[in-house]
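hey m, so remember when u said the tokens were messed up on ur end? i reran from scratch. heres the input so u can diff it against urs
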Amino acid sequence: MADPPSTPAHQITAAAPPPEPLTLRPDDRVDLHLHTLASDGAWTPAALVDHLAGEGFRVAAVADHDTMRSVPEVARRAARRGIRILPAVEVTTRWSDRQWHVLVYGIQPNRADPEARAFRSVLADLDAQLLTLAEDARRRIEAVGKPLPSLEEIAGGRPLWPYHVLTSAIREGHVKNLKEAAELVSRMGGGFTADEPLDRVVDAAHQAGGIAVVAHPGRSDSVGALSPEDLDRMLAEIPIDGLEAHYRSHTDEQTALYRRLADEKGLFISVGSDSHAPHQPVNPRPWRAVWAKDLLRRLGITVDSVTGSAPVWEPGMDPLAPKPKPAENEPEKPEAAASEPKPDAAMSAAMV
């Protein structure tokens, strides 16, 4: 007896019903940039959803580095708690001789239709590069008499990526931190980060109906800050869609700059903490939904407008925004010293 015919995957995913309509108040809590243990974070899907529910978040986006493996489970758990999870991924790209992190929103990870083929290929290529780099780094470290017995436990059944190898090197006492681990691999001739051309990533995202937003444009400690001149050159070549104007380390001055640039260029504005684990570097931030109103609307979520003549955003409205650093001849104030600790620069471009 012949097996019944199988329904093609692209027909199943294409027939998936759209999410229920959702309307948010202007001050409802959202965070559109979160990581899990699928990449370099430590949030489990269960712990992340518990935290979001406990803090009253209405919408969040799981945006792991170069993978969407956690999105389905987080979305399922969150739906039971009344939280909408937006599919996202933070893609490592290259343009103008440097790396840029790009948040791609709105592409479901189970898409198997032809329009999503190019974007699936981007993520598959990055995964293959990272798997190769991880195995190479493992071989190089162990070849010089530095065993990594904890590596299997750290990977925990996940695909082996360079971050796991570097973390194992720390646990085994071969190095003190991620910066030293990355430098160790580099000295041995290995690598720990992969990227794809920015134009390829954006084009593939657009083919699948996704939205491409430059992540943390004001972070000079990572891959480098995005200047207005950079943005002009980028837009002249590549049709990016938005800027993450609200970010955990942005001062009010930086937020104002990137909101202004987004308004002038007709770009979406996103909001994100970049939380990787409890208090690492921060917990999910309660950004106001109205600050990302246009982006959320594009993603199927309506946000009510602010009432009367009240501003959507102005300096001082975000109590968690870090204070500007004092001038060199000015004593540092306690509140400035308490702002976010700087990540290891050698790893921040690849991991945070």
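this time it looks ok to me. The chain is about 35% helix and 15% strand. if urs says something different then somethings off w ur setup not the seq
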